[in-house]
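Researcher: Here's the sequence for the chain we discussed earlier.
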Amino acid sequence: MKSLRHRLKLQRPGPWLQMTTALVGLCGTLVLLADMFFGVLPDPAVQERRWRQKTAEGIAVHVAVLLQANNPTLLKRTLDALVEQTPEVQSVAVRRSDGRVIAQASRAAAPGAPAGGTAAWFAPRNGQDQLKLPLLSDAGPWGAVELSLVADQRPWWLAFLRQPLVSTLLFISLAGSLVFGLYLRRVLQHLDPASAIPERVQNAFDVMAEGVAVLDDRGRVLLLNKAFGKLHPQAHKVSTGTALSALPWLVQGLGADEREHP
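Model: Thanks. This is the structure I predict for it:
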């Protein structure tokens, strides 16, 4: 039991890792709260619906103007140019209320389209969406503009990762862990632990004639007494957080066998 308790204690994350994780978590929480209350990150689904709605309304208005001009040839050319210049539009058709198609245009590679491209309105496949906007006349409903819009064909996991909120949280997690980790390691390395040690304890170390260095589990200096600063001309320059193994004048006098080190 004692061995297991000791092992669990050794596996416990250090203050550096705990503080880094806490800061990253706080930043992620602030982003979530900002998006919840102020909507700082746009919703791609809402933007997509708005774009499609505006596109369909613009096409319907344009078609209505061309129908009033009573020029079927110009209407057909306009629909062909629309499909060619708009990759998101798979097919478009103008259909009367009785089902007769006045004009249409579709891509040759439209999934599910009949041979020859004779129909622009067909069952959606491979993520296609369809929109149908009514056309009105003075006598009532005249017909409709039918649009087949190609949806995003990316895998679901890639579309999920491209969500603004998800990508922002991932960036904060990765970049924040790196930036906060490096900064905290630098700060904690130079913090003076002597401020947490009572003055009488420091005085007791300073009274000793031998040089005393208190190290952490990585061999870095936590506390030095005055006698240590007299061991070498450069000893007084050793600061908190310095690894003793990085001092050539000290390592040369310790020997190669670490078990014999004091």
